[in-house]
Model the fold of this input.
Amino acid sequence: MAASTVPDIVIGRLPLYLRALTMMSEAGQEYTSSHELGQQLGIGSAQIRKDLSHFGEFGKQGTGYEVNFLKEQLAKILKVDRDWPVALVGFGDLGQAIAHYGGFAAKGFHIQAIFDNDPAKIGQEVNGKQVQDIARLSEIIRQQQIKIAIIAVPAFAAQAVADQLVEAGVKAILNYAPITLKVPEGVRVQYIDPVVHLQWMAYYLE
Amino acid sequence: MAASTVPDIVIGRLPLYLRALTMMSEAGQEYTSSHELGQQLGIGSAQIRKDLSHFGEFGKQGTGYEVNFLKEQLAKILKVDRDWPVALVGFGDLGQAIAHYGGFAAKGFHIQAIFDNDPAKIGQEVNGKQVQDIARLSEIIRQQQIKIAIIAVPAFAAQAVADQLVEAGVKAILNYAPITLKVPEGVRVQYIDPVVHLQWMAYYLE
DNA sequence: TAGATTGTTAATCGATTAACAATC
DNA sequence: TAGATTGTTAATCGATTAACAATC
Done:
């Protein structure tokens, strides 16, 4: 089935399935079922089977799914069965925390270029990569054919950074700035704003 | 209308409305409309009006909404018109970044207690707060009547931490560990996992 | 075989959107 | 007044869930 026909919300759950399968795999578990996966993720088993059915048939009646097989299939579907170079824009507290965080590289997202506009930060080194002047953003991103970027600049600067990234060919932006970005068709943005989550939960408190 | 009847997904959008209104307010803007808010957030104007209608009537035909009024009403509805004490569990790289991040306190979420199990970290000071031994978690959270906690420990330790938090009376958990937590009815969990967002977007890349 | 679990269909459920009377 | 925009209704759209034949 063509990619465009799969609902985006289904795609969004695949990383969760993949995460659970990875844990099972690491624990040496060989088989699982839609029921067990659902239990672990707090999702209905029917939904998991329905989601997977968009991409093919991965299980066997009676026995369920082979953990490593399904894990590899999902990684392939999500295109995370390879390494992706990533650009990081912003080397303040947050940017530095992101640059030092090993979790991205562990999953194949390698921060290959870091940018800031502060002369005091330009030239600093992290994991063998020097912080570059943001003036060179377009040049470097084009040269390295980077398609994924992380924005970790203040809100007031985020849209301008996004515009530059898009212009340089970036197609996926993970935005830590608390502002909704305007991007053209074909460019994806995902948001990380912990304050939004806290405010959401505060509603339910006494 | 009783809180329980408002869909959770509607509550989740209120922080976004509040964020946009705050920016408008800071820019000195006095009035806005559902259309303008929608433009700014990439949401339909009808949806915004529908969402707000769950809580009352906040606008005027012909003129729209008074920015500061709507902002204050939303803050009240979300219960973020006050300060909330927050506990942070885990003082590794991520926990330290969170502890130093000023964005939480700026929105009224004050980190009042920090916990770790590493003797080398216990006793360190951040913003005048000492990192406490996790053994004292229950005692301190009860004493300070903390209802909101942030989990920033490794995945393998997260469920045990969540259990302790719940047992101590925490009702809202912001979980940075890449694992789905099991919590009883009445306790809310929100997840921050940037890798999930990157994997989601990778699907759409060439 | 008997038991378990898939993939899929159809029904249900809930959210989004369009349209418009009311009215500032 | 004329123009603009609300709050709300009803229609549409899409996602979730239950149920079950197929089959390992």
